[in-house]
UniProtKB/TrEMBL annotation:
GO cellular component terms attached to this protein's record: mitochondrial inner membrane; respiratory chain complex III
Pfam family, one: UCR_14kD
Keyword terms of this UniProt record: Electron transport, Membrane, Mitochondrion, Mitochondrion inner membrane, Respiratory chain, Transport
Keyword Iron-sulfur belongs to the record: no
Subcellular location: Mitochondrion inner membrane
Protein topology in the membrane: Peripheral membrane protein
Organism of this sequence: Lymnaea stagnalis
Primary location: mitochondrion
Protein name listed in UniProt: Cytochrome b-c1 complex subunit 7
Length: 120
């Protein structure tokens, strides 16, 4: 997506719009913010997407990997204890941005490009 289009999409998000309110409501109705997880912490490695996810995780900075692992371990512990975090420690919708999906898109693009080069 071109830079002007990205800026237009970012500017189009109106916090008073019905769509924003529905997305925010749905976010908090899911279970993962109560456990302190971010949206992209729950991406599952399937047999098809496993190599892509592993490569994207390998490219993350060490601090981000450590934070992700901590969030997942804490969520597992809370889930086993059948508890949730206090409300002030929940993941905030406005601060939960993508950290893994840009890398996943990049890895997919590189794999497709490699496939094209190998087939030529």
């Amino acid at each position: 997506m071109a830079a002007p289009a990205r800026q237009a999409v970012k500017q189009a998000v109106d916090k008073n719009s019905l769509w924003y309110k529905v997305c925010r409501w749905y976010y908090y109705k899911s279970y993962f913010p109560e456990l302190g997880l971010r949206k992209e912490d729950i991406i599952v490695e399937t047999p098809v997407t496993g190599p892509i996810i592993k490569e994207a995780l390998r490219r993350l900075p060490k601090e981000e990997i450590d934070a992700r692992n901590f969030r997942i371990l804490r969520a597992n512990q809370l889930s086993m204890m059948k508890r949730v975090l206090p409300r002030d420690q929940w993941t905030v919708y406005e601060e939960d941005g993508p950290y893994l999906s840009p890398l996943i898109k990049e890895v997919k693009r590189e794999m497709e490009e490699r496939k094209l080069w190998d087939s030529a």
